[in-house]
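2.7 Reproducibility. Because tokenized structures are sensitive to small changes in the input, we list the exact sequence used for Lipase, including any N-terminal residues retained from the expression construct. No trimming or masking was applied before prediction.
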Amino acid sequence: MARPVAVVVAAFLAGLLASEIAAEIAQNSADFYNLGRRRLPQQSLCLELIEPSGYSCSEHKIQTKDGYLLGLQRVSSRSGDLRTQLGPPVLLQHGLFMAGDAWFLNSPEESMGFVLADQGFDVWVGNVRGTRWSHGHVSLSEDDKNFWDWSWQELAEYDLAKMIHHIYSITNSKVFIVGHSQGTIMSLAALTQPDVAEMVEAAALFCPISYLEHITAKFVLRMVNMHLDQMILAMGIHELNFRSDWGVNLLDSICDGHVDCNDLLTSITGKNCCFNNSRVDFYLNYEPHPTSTKNLHHLFQMIRKGTFSKYDYGILKNLKLYGQLKPPSFDLGLIPKSLPLLMAYGGNDDLADVEDFHHTLKELQSTPELVYLENYGHIDFIVSINAKEDLHDRVIGFFRSWGKSSSS
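Resulting structure tokens (single pass, no recycling of outputs):
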């Protein structure tokens, strides 16, 4: 197989749960050839992407209770001032292989982060551990395998919980949440914790995926059936970085004789209606971000078992850590009935399957406001050129209808 196709695979696997770097593969394969050699952002997210568009932005560093140092950015409108920003706080939580830059990759008129800031919201941008806009660990090096010993479970219980608490303490207001893909897994799991839920005013969740049993993404299912996650762990690889040489070579071997990788966009995310192909080169300056192999393994466990549970360590370690043979489930019924939810899902999304989505709805106490976009695939919810009219305006109206009680 030609080398460029292997690099395309790397880029689109990095979009496994909604990376915004997708494009028409056959027409753009040359753009991906040097993915691993592309310029990585060297400055802060504020300086790299937000302030050049004319928005006020400040950098914050917070520490989780297990020692990870996370980057948060605070953004106000082009006509605003961070010191006098009066709107309610909104936390934007990205998905897998992404970071906070995901919310700012299109124009100010199309990007969720910019649109919310222009509407007067106090925008906070989350970046989970391991991504380039976060800041490592108080004692562990990123070369240490223990640095990568986490999955989305820790991202929910530690990272997201800390972000919400920090914003709540700074603003003295309950926090609105916007989550996409893995950001919805994190949000739903975190909101089962009463101390977190009481600091949240409402949540808008795009492509909710608390259950993954019925995904139809062919390429992802092939990797699950090959037990790729377990093979990578067995190789002693704890950091998943698809800009690295080994990542490209690994995915080259997957495609070679095993999977048709010529239509990777559709085989991973479903058909996306509204993706701007002309911006692929720009997106690849920022995406993909690293994650942990353990995180991928946890997601694949969910696909295989049809559960929304904590990480499965096997019987003996489960007994030691959880006091039971199987990992405990996250009980969605613990999310307060009084907590307003908006859930947006797409008819062409092969990752956030409609059947799994309805499984989630049945377990909630509340009845969320639903936004169904028939033509949307998984990444349209982040980088659609029509997102403001299709989605953002609905979210803004939803937040404003619940925002009157946000001061506490």
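The chain is about 35% helix and 15% strand.
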